[in-house]
Task: inverse folding
């Protein structure tokens, strides 16, 4: 969103304690070729797109040092360990780690993801807003922080996802992380759906 423009998403008007995240940045809008390529990875399992999206994320982090200042962990909003055709968020985060050759950012190495989802929950795609909220709450409840629980106490976390639609999932996961001890959760998504005013 352009600086100075009012956010049209209902979550933006909530106090930070209710929305969970302090800010959400998007690499681009969810439309056209980017939308199609996200679908190629997410639903068709074409893994080459994970490498490109990982590069995009690292490029964004490199060019936005003010947004990265103070971040202790960069974690993906996890997908279920049995997700088919692949765990697309984990694939993107693994690619981002590989792309960050100087280890400038606190990304977890492949296989060492700090936030995992071991139980499958209902998907929120193509659902009503109420169904999305219910699915988001169930998703957040199914997540586990794999590191030492002391690691998250007082931490600032950058939570990465592919698409920001209603914001419900990011909200619930951010609130879960803060309830576990994180002091701040920032969001970063590859693409956001244009919000209606």
Result:
């Amino acid at each position: 969103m352009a600086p100075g423009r009012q956010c049209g998403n209902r979550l933006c008007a909530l106090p930070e304690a209710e929305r969970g995240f302090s800010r959400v940045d998007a690499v681009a809008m969810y439309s056209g070729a980017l939308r199609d390529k996200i679908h190629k990875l997410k639903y068709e399992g074409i893994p080459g797109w994970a490498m490109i999206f990982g590069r995009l994320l690292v490029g964004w982090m490199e060019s936005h040092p003010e947004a990265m200042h103070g971040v202790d962990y960069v974690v993906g909003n996890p997908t279920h360990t049995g997700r088919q055709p692949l765990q697309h968020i984990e694939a993107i985060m693994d690619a981002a780690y590989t792309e960050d050759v100087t280890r400038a950012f606190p990304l977890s190495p492949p296989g060492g993801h700090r936030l995992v989802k071991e139980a499958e929950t209902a998907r929120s795609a193509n659902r009503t807003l109420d169904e999305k909220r219910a699915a988001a709450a169930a998703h957040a409840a199914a997540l586990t922080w794999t590191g030492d629980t002391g690691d998250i106490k007082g931490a600032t976390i950058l939570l990465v996802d592919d698409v920001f639609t209603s914001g419900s999932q990011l909200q619930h996961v951010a609130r879960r992380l803060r309830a576990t001890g994180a002091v701040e959760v920032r969001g970063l998504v590859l693409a956001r759906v244009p919000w209606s005013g």
Q: What stands out?
A: Strands lie at 23-29, 73-76, 115-117, 143-145, 156-164, 184-192. The chain has a mean pLDDT of 92. The radius of gyration is 16 Å. The longest strand covers residues 156-164.
